[in-house]
Amino acid sequence: MFDKSTIVEKLKSYFSTKQEIKFAYLFGSVASDKAFSLSDIDIAVMCSKKCNVMELMAQLSYLLKFDEVEVVDLSQTHNLRLIKEIIQKGIVVKDSPTREEWELQKYHQALDFINHTKVIYGY
């Protein structure tokens, strides 16, 4: 049902024409080869200015010929556990010189948050 390599190539081609997108990832069950019939396609983007996430979801749904496409605007999410998962397990489908610096900063924030949570809540 999900051909990861085809999805990755389509996303790379699409994002190569989008100057407003600094970098992007395919993540979630499709990226980790765990997709099944009820899965969606998860994409995370970092925009140079405010993204129209709904428009982007519609365009990507059309491109991928799949209704269930979810887009996460990385500049708007504060879910450090999700960001850590995207960094660790996501597939970069558009790259930028700023991505590695952003990843390093967010990864350290996520680890600090997780460690503080363990200390505070004991898990």
Count every helix, treating DSSP H or I runs of 4 or more residues as helices: 4
Reported for the largest beta sheet, the result is:
4 strands, mixed
Question: Between the first and last Cα atoms, what is the distance in angstroms?
Answer: 38 Å
Which sequence of SSEs, written as H and E, runs from N to C?
HEEHEHEH
User: Which spans have pLDDT < 50 for at least 5 consecutive residues?
Assistant: none
Kindly provide the name of the CATH class: Alpha Beta
Please indicate the percent range of residues in DSSP E strands (runs of 2 or more).
15-25%
Principal-axes shape call: globular
Number of strands: 4
Within the CATH hierarchy, at the fold level, what is the topology?
Beta Polymerase, domain 2
Verbal overview:
The chain is built from four helices and four strands. By secondary structure, the protein is an alpha+beta fold. It has a single domain, classed as Beta Polymerase, domain 2, CATH 3.30.460. It has a four-stranded mixed sheet with strand order 3-2-1-4, sandwiched between helices. Strand 2, helix 2 and strand 3 form a beta-alpha-beta unit. Helix 3 packs across helix 4. The model has no long low-confidence stretch (mean pLDDT 92).
